[in-house]
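Saturday, quiet lab. Running sequence design on the structure tokens for the scaffold JK sent over.
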């Protein structure tokens, strides 16, 4: 919100003025009102293994995060470039594998990757598009520099919170909206629907049938699944609602079977088809992969996209962008030490107290060490893990992440944030609604913004002017 000299950044001028005059009891009242709204709407998040909080609200901060239009234009161009390269990379590693032949990415990072699906080798999804919905996690370190922290190319979540956060803010703070020209995010559902329609198999009718496949009510993101199906005006289905006949997917309805053209699946690869992946999966659809290979149905995202979004491949993204696009990355990567490389491992072991160490396949803020905030016991535990399995880890410097004003028990205080914009790629165009999901570390000094680790969310404003 402020520049190094203490002056308020231009984008935050109106908000700073409003905060300086808003009485504390008004902010307290709005916080309680927001919580009541979220409870009525039913937005919850399940935490697996937490007996005390199987269903809970994600903390919501009432102070928006604000970006200027020029900042967003820079981010948007970088996001489009990155997702285009991700699609080209995935197509290549399941196809000609030119990047492996060129020695840019080591073979073992592909073929020994748990997310690599041999079933997709030599195959291509409809239109050769793999990542239709991407969630790219962005962090900021100063007024000029954005870094990509992580690529989510499988089933990125959180967009329902982006939409609900905006709706609640409009209801609670009309006076703030009247002072700003905030770019809308409400059209995300229309943009997503247009993207899903564009990627239907070529044999589909002019009005393809689209469904959202959920693991069911016990999934941690079930609220989002039902929310999105409702917003899109499509059927929310479980595996038992679908069946395959002659390599065509059908949905059971009261009027008889109805052909399905596009499945927006919120189900991991290994549960999709018990005939191909896990035979004990009761969540998927027997024969689905066969129908997929026959080109009769599109899965969003494609099977096997996880080969591109682990943290080891992340470290090669600058090279991947240069290889496929012949241009320099518009968004920087966080400098990354690959512990699989002996020199990098030695450096990491010597500097554990200074670094953030992450599992290559970790997510949700689990399985990581934040060196400056870790105890000696935690550091020694990770030292043993690194020595035992160095290829399973990467390490990064502890960035001085930007903070945003956040309303906490003590009043307005700085808290670290990141941003997850959602990138939609169809056959016709790339669509990105301005903004995204800002996640905020509610604990003072914490760098972990994940909801499973106590993080919250806030509305993200991109100014139209």
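Result came back. Writing it out in full:
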């Amino acid at each position: 919100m402020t520049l190094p000299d203490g002056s308020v950044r231009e984008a935050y001028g109106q908000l700073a003025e409003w905060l300086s005059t808003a009485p504390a009891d008004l902010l307290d009242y709005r916080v309680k009102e927001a919580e009541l709204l979220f409870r009525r709407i039913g937005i919850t998040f399940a935490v697996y293994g937490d007996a005390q909080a199987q269903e809970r609200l994600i903390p919501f901060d009432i102070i928006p995060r604000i970006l200027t239009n020029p900042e967003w234009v820079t981010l948007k161009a970088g996001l489009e470039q990155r997702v285009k390269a991700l699609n080209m990379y995935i197509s290549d590693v399941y196809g000609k594998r030119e990047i492996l032949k060129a020695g840019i990415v080591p073979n073992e990072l592909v073929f020994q990757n748990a997310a690599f699906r041999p079933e997709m080798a030599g195959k291509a999804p409809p239109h050769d598009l793999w990542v239709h919905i991407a969630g790219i996690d962005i962090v900021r370190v100063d007024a000029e520099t954005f870094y990509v922290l992580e690529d989510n190319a499988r089933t990125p979540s959180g967009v329902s919170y982006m939409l609900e956060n905006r709706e609640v803010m409009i209801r609670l703070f009309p006076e703030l909206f009247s002072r700003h020209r905030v770019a809308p995010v409400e059209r995300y559902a229309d943009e997503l629907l247009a993207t899903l329609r564009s990627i239907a198999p070529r044999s589909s009718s002019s009005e393809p049938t689209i469904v959202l496949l959920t693991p069911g009510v016990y999934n941690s993101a079930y609220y989002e699944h039902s929310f999105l199906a409702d917003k899109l005006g499509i059927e929310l289905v479980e595996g038992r609602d679908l069946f395959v006949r002659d390599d065509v997917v059908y949905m059971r309805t009261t009027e008889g079977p109805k052909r399905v053209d596009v499945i927006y699946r919120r189900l991991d690869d290994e549960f999709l088809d018990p005939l191909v992946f896990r035979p004990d999966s009761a969540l998927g659809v027997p024969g689905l992969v066969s129908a997929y290979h026959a080109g009769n149905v599109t899965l969003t995202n494609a099977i096997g996209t996880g080969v591109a979004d682990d943290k080891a491949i992340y470290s090669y993204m600058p090279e991947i962008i240069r290889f496929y696009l012949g241009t320099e990355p518009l968004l920087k990567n966080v400098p990354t030490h690959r512990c699989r490389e002996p020199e990098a491992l030695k450096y990491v072991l010597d500097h554990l107290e200074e670094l953030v160490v992450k599992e290559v396949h970790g997510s949700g803020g689990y399985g990581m060490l934040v060196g400056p905030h870790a105890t000696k016991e935690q550091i020694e535990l990770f030292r043993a893990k690194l020595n035992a399995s160095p290829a399973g880890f990467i390490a990064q410097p502890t960035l001085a992440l930007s903070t945003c004003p956040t309303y906490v028990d003590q009043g307005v205080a700085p808290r670290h944030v990141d941003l997850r914009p959602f990138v939609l790629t169809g056959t016709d165009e790339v669509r990105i609604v301005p903004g995204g999901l800002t996640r905020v570390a509610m604990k003072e000094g914490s760098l972990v913004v994940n909801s499973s680790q106590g993080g919250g969310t806030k509305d993200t404003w991109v100014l139209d002017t």
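Notes for JK: The chain has 14 helices and 23 strands. The radius of gyration is 22 Å. Ask whether to fix the surface positions before the next round.
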